[in-house]
Amino acid sequence: MLELYGKSTSINVRKVLWLCEELELKYRHVGGDPSSDADFNARLCRINPNGQVPVLLDGDFALWESNSICRYLAARAQRHDLLPADPRARALVEQWMDWQATDLNSAWRGAFMSRVRRHPDYPDGPVADASMGRWNALMGLLDHQLAHTGAHVVGASFTLADIVLGLSTQRWRMTPGDKPDLPAVEAWFARLGRRAGFAQHVDNGVP
């Protein structure tokens, strides 16, 4: 049986949990926080040298990095609707997944760590304001894309790009701060709400 390591409040673990529901997979979720549970951290570091979650075990095969795990599970299930076999169609899905993991994640750090995590290294002030501004600008880019497709991130069909960006959008919606009206994002987010696992793993009150 598949094993997934990581606390269910982690945005990256929640990506994989949501996908597991979409795929109707049988799996064992091994919850734990490596920052506060020494035994869990030691076990985690044996399978991921970075000591970070999530980690997927499929028999003797270990995989880390949430977007890579999502790609693997979709390919393993031969779900070409989620991760197309056609090289160009697949590249478009992966393009938005990589954008989420790089540009979007980098933009939100100051605002999120300050206003949600209340981390002492991230005081609420100009740095957080600038972070929120960059985050809003990138969410505006997503809104433009969704207005263009009229449905999902890369087109008419739901893909892995919608899973990873759905989690990011939920975090943006829950972080305090001035935000622009993004009607295409809001309409898309409402459509995602009808998907299996969305209420449990995405729009569950955890930013």
UniProtKB/TrEMBL annotation:
Pfam families: GST_C, GST_N. PROSITE patterns: GST_CTER (PS50405), GST_NTER (PS50404). Residues 86-207 form the GST C-terminal domain. Residues 1-81 form the GST N-terminal domain. InterPro entries: Glutathione-S-Trfase_C-like, Glutathione-S-Trfase_C_sf, Glutathione_S-Trfase, Glutathione_S-Trfase_N, GST_C, Thioredoxin-like_sf. Belongs to the GST superfamily. PANTHER family: DISULFIDE-BOND OXIDOREDUCTASE YFCG, GLUTATHIONE S-TRANSFERASE-RELATED. This is Glutathione S-transferase family protein. It comes from Stenotrophomonas aracearum.
